[in-house]
Specification:
This protein is α+β, with helices and mostly antiparallel strands and 400 residues long. The protein is built from 17 helices and twelve strands. The longest helix has 32 residues.
């Protein structure tokens, strides 16, 4: 078994040299009995799309924490996420949720993102200096989600804390008792709050996403309240935590490559391409998990039924077998048949990918337009969070 350290400060500062070594020496690497890490693009893409790989979140929890831990409320709540289900239940939930989510069209989503981004920048523009993670990257996605759900903006601050606590249950390395307790508390907070929201929207339905989820139907099938609450919590985790971190990563990446930043500032029409390259080069989601539903050979390794594979999207997106000069950040990178994998793939491809791209494009556009003299501080030695599943910055100081 190859010895690797996924918890060192050096790894968190720059995981890509280790990813390159794994791609070369152990592309399907055993982390512990029954748990593997895949780092090559072709393997990652295949596993994401192969129906013989599915989901069994609680089995992974049991392997890492012990069988008693699966009863903890946080793990039980997360296990009800559509993202962690297999067909036919996943198909049923995705169909119903897509009906509600699809009602919100791109122009409406872009309007919400632009409105909230402008409000946030206007709130700190006169300060001349701020932490863009705290005042912009983190509040923006949660404000957009609150607007989509038509819930009070003042509640967004508590959801910031709750999402950061709950998302830790996805970490590759086991979290401690205090973090499990915080995740349990966050799961209960989501449950209490959105049960009350569902009761209110049944009495007074609107055009918000909760009302649309309550109304969504396929034939005689509808979502029940537990399914709605769990997947609204998923919306906060997947739609907030990942996008907030991705915005910080994109800003840091652009300022670390001033020639590419100048190119973008001189030609804002390149913004969609810039976002795509940021998503490839420094994605915020590094790990997706699948479970083998039968024995499956991947290269020289056989993944046995019931074993878990962690798919390293960060490593796959820098695979030189697919992307030429992958460690170079290049906005004008030629489009290839193989796309980067920031949003996963297959039946579990991120339902909120369109919203995430809209938020990233809108946020960068407004920052660069309203703060033309924006400069980041300490870009050579940024403070990365000590996590692998979600890669992001603790803070990002800036002045103008």
């Amino acid at each position: 078994m190859l010895k690797i350290d996924l918890n060192s400060p050096a790894f968190f500062a720059d995981p890509y040299p280790l990813y390159a070594k794994l791609r070369s020496d152990a592309p399907i690497c055993p982390l512990m009995p029954g748990i593997w890490l895949a780092t090559r693009y072709e393997d990652a893409n295949r596993i994401l799309r192969d129906p013989r790989f599915g989901k069994d979140f609680l089995a992974g929890v049991a392997r890492r924490y012990g069988t008693d831990t699966v009863k903890e409320p946080a793990f039980q709540t997360v296990n009800r996420f559509m993202l962690l289900m297999n067909p036919p239940e996943h198909t049923r939930l995705r169909t119903l949720i897509s009906k509600a989510f699809g009602v919100k069209q791109a122009p409406e989503l872009r309007h919400l993102a632009r409105r909230e981004a402008n409000r946030l920048v206007d709130g700190f523009i006169d300060q001349r200096r701020t932490d863009l993670i705290k005042t912009f990257a983190y509040p923006l996605p949660v404000r957009v989600i609150c607007a989509l759900l038509d819930i009070r903006l003042e509640d967004s601050l508590r959801f910031l804390e709750d999402t950061q606590a709950l998302v830790k249950v996805f970490e590759l390395s086991p979290i401690g008792p205090a973090e499990v307790h915080a995740a349990n508390r966050a799961a209960q907070a989501f449950d209490d709050y959105f049960r009350a929201v569902c009761r209110e929207r049944r009495k007074n339905p609107g055009t918000d996403l909760v009302s649309l989820l309550l109304q969504a139907e396929e034939g005689e099938d509808r979502l029940n309240e537990d399914e709605i609450i769990a997947n609204v919590a998923l919306l906060f985790l997947a739609g907030h935590e990942t996008t907030a971190n991705m915005l910080g990563n994109a800003l840091l990446t652009l300022f670390r490559h001033p020639d590419q930043l100048d190119l973008l500032r001189g030609n804002p029409s390149l913004l969609p391409q810039a976002v795509t390259e940021c998503l490839r080069y420094e994605t915020s989601v590094h790990i997706a998990a699948r479970v083998a539903m039968q024995d499956i050979a991947i290269g020289a390794v056989t993944i046995k039924q019931g074993e878990t594979v962690y798919i390293n999207l960060g490593a796959a997106n820098r695979d030189p077998a697919v992307f030429s000069d992958p460690d170079r950040f290049l906005i004008g990178r030629p489009e290839l048949p193989r796309k980067p994998l920031p949003f996963g793939g297959g039946i579990h491809y991120c339902l909120g990918a369109r919203l995430a791209r809209i938020e990233l494009e809108t946020a960068l556009d407004i920052l660069f337009r309203k703060l033309p003299k924006l400069q980041l501080e300490n870009i050579d030695n940024p403070c990365w969070k000590p996590t692998i599943t979600i890669r992001g910055l603790d803070y990002l100081l800036a002045h103008w």
